[in-house]
Specification:
The chain has 386 residues and is an alpha+beta fold. It has eleven helices and twelve strands. It is globular.
């Protein structure tokens, strides 16, 4: 892979790349639909990601090429930038726009990107490209932003420049990820704990349902509103800012305040899921993968039955996982309505698992899923090809 990328860069730009950077994708191990409820999530970086090869030029232009997309761009260094349609290079342009807004001095670059994250799978290819670009510019031009500042500026690109109203978990996990560690992150305060996550003789299987997926914004916004309704009902007697400010025990005492049965189901998921993240962190640090797997299944069941964001595709993957003795646990990951599921699978049985889930899913759904093997990897970094 690495020498190949160098050759591609030379072929395109007729010179060597001077520096190479890498930013991973991410999966959320547990803690779903928690970020906007002031609670805990537990993402980790994966071993797929985005490579960025660069070389300075004297033409005062930014040249963007990707081995994943046909569209290319050559954009002069200027004071301000606007979004160009829906092209992939809006993400790096947004990062450059932010640096220039902050009066940071940049110069022209020839850039080649290559990502091995499946596009549109919900594994954060956009956060990966934002963070690798921000990290690279910060290093190349000695800007001096901290890693947390790079995370926040990448979120600004997603929210303001691109116009997608998403949380900070994706950018945070691809920047701060550590090999063999999950990040227990408080989405409200951004305090986090790196949790030892030695998977032993297991690997992470990432199963992309391949369901044509446009995030069901209306459903997503509906869930956010339902959580707000639950919070408002509880605030009649409790001094809380978020649903996740209380645990299940406290919730059981006050849930009678929520009179709408659908809203009650949503709140029950959120508060129990937040508690599950804490239990999952303990299970992982105790190297108790059996308990961690049980919590994964419980999380999926709650997302399916109480939060209602799963669907036949994701449920079919988890249904198969439960029948396979090599699987410790499985769940949908991400916002739902399609996208990916993850499973903790014995490494030496991964190929059998992969074949089994593809056959089972194809028979039931009518088309095949894609299955990938990953470990828990590092966050954004510079890499040396030598």
């Amino acid at each position: 892979m690495k020498p190949q990328l160098q050759q591609e860069f030379s072929k395109i730009y007729h010179k060597e790349a001077t520096r190479t950077f890498f930013s991973p994708g991410r999966v959320n191990l547990i803690g779903e639909h928690i970020d906007y409820n002031g609670g805990l999530v537990m993402p980790c970086a994966i071993t797929f990601g985005t490579y960025m090869l660069v070389s300075p030029n004297n033409d005062n232009v930014f040249r963007f090429k990707s081995l994943n997309f046909d569209e290319t761009a050559e954009i002069p260094l200027q004071e301000s930038y606007i979004k160009h349609g829906t092209d992939w290079y809006n993400y790096p342009i947004g990062v450059i726009a932010y640096f220039l807004q902050q009066d940071k001095k940049l110069q022209g670059l020839d850039i080649l990107y290559y990502g091995d994250i499946p596009i549109g799978s919900g594994l954060s290819s956009s956060a990966s490209i934002e963070v690798v670009t921000a990290f690279a510019l910060n290093e190349l031009f000695n800007i001096g932003f901290t890693k947390l500042e790079l995370v926040k500026l990448s979120k600004w690109v997603e929210n303001v420049f691109i116009g997608l109203n998403s949380g900070i978990m994706d950018q945070f996990s691809v920047a701060f990820g550590e090999k063999d560690k999950a990040l227990m992150l408080n989405c409200d305060t951004l305090e986090y704990q790196a949790v030892d996550s030695n998977l032993g003789d297991n690997v992470l299987a990432i199963i992309n349902t391949n369901k044509p997926r446009k995030l069901a914004e209306s459903k997503y916004n509906e869930r956010v509103q339902e959580c707000q309704s639950a919070l408002k009902a509880l605030q009649q007697e409790l001094d809380i800012s978020y649903l996740c400010d209380i645990d299940t025990k406290k919730f059981d005492q006050y849930k009678h305040l929520i009179t709408n049965p659908t809203v009650l189901k949503r709140a029950t998921h959120v508060i129990a899921e937040n508690d599950r993240v804490k239990l999952a962190a303990k299970a992982l640090s105790d190297n108790n993968l059996e308990e961690f797997g049980r919590l994964m299944y419980a999380s999926h069941d709650s997302l399916r039955d109480l939060y209602e964001v799963s669907g036949i595709e994701l449920d079919t993957v988890v249904e198969y996982a439960r029948t396979n003795p090599s699987v410790a646990g499985a769940r949908m990951t991400g916002a739902g309505f399609g996208g990916c599921a993850i499973a903790l699978v014995k490494a030496n049985d991964f190929d059998n698992f992969s074949k089994g889930v593809i056959d089972y899913y194809t028979e039931k759904i009518g088309y095949a899923p894609s299955v990938y093997k990953s470990m828990i990897g590092d966050g954004v970094k510079e890499i040396n090809f030598l």
